[in-house]
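Appendix B, Record 12. Input sequence as logged:
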Amino acid sequence: MNVRAKVGLSVLAVFCAFVVLAVTTTTSTTPGQLVPAGNTNVARFSHTATLLRNGKVLIAGGMTRNGVWLDSAEIYDPANGQFILTNRLHSPRAGATATLLPNGKVLIAGGTDGSGKSLASAELYDPDTSTFSETGSMNTPRGHAIAVLLKTGRVLIAGGNASGDNDQLTTAEVYDPATGLFTPTGSMHTRRSAFTAIMLKDGRVLVAGGLSGGQYPYHMVEATAEIYDPETGRFSETGSMEFPRYKQGAALLPDGKVLIAGGSNEIGRQITYSSTEIFDPQLGKFSPGPRMRFPRYKLLSGVVTLNDGRIMLAGGAERPEIYDPARDAFTQPNGEPLDGFLFSTATLLRDGRVLLVDGYGHHPTDGAVNQALIWKP
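Logged structural output:
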């Protein structure tokens, strides 16, 4: 090959690389648009939303207002943009966990039903029959716990509260879809409810923050964090966050680090955070991240990782925003402010869009806001 040809190929390679970089950069910085997606059949908050294998979304339980628990469930179909009621849960549940199992069913566990104590029972939703069936119960009643699908196909469920704000748990258990049974595993070092859990790239699980006791306005909120190792069945303590947080959001970043965003301290809604922190599993330490544009809390189910690696913070404030790890910055999607944004849900659809459902807003006594939106890239 002559020199001129080599130079030509080099120039072409540089040009192609530039084009790819330009396309990637453009894709990763677009704020996207929020558009209306109709209304749910039942306004709800503190519900669950789970993407099914068929691309539809199961929305279940929650509360329509304080004191009114729900056993209703509905399905959102992205193909026609409609919400259709499906069969009811066996028990009303708010603050339950929902996990898509490898067999395509959805495990819904725990939560509260208004009795004053949390639930130990669990149910399975079968998309093929559109029905809920009871499965084995947990060893401990839990509301506002965490659930993480492990690489083994089993589900880790940890923490939560057994009967109110001053009854947090350290215990954890693992659900096996093959047997339908829950088995105790190692306990956390600290009591926690309303906290976050993220599976790291190596299969371990980071749990951070949470409420550890006390009654409002004297809550005890944690800055501590722990890591669960499925191979040993044990939790080990790791570095603590800079600030105590509960009802915060969390997401795994493309480089394997974890973003912790927002939340509040023991004063609750009177003090909410716009700060973020980044956990590095290699160092076992948290470091300050960029500040969000808005303080936000009660976004435990309002955070999703987009297909391009960016993180959408859709809950906790009336304006969603998107974190771009490559630029270490936040952008704000186009669209009108949200009416419902506390204890709302955000679900990544198969085509890269995000479904935002209900929650409540600036007037808690008015109850849940019947509101569904789609974020379009």
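The two ends are 44 Å apart (CA to CA).
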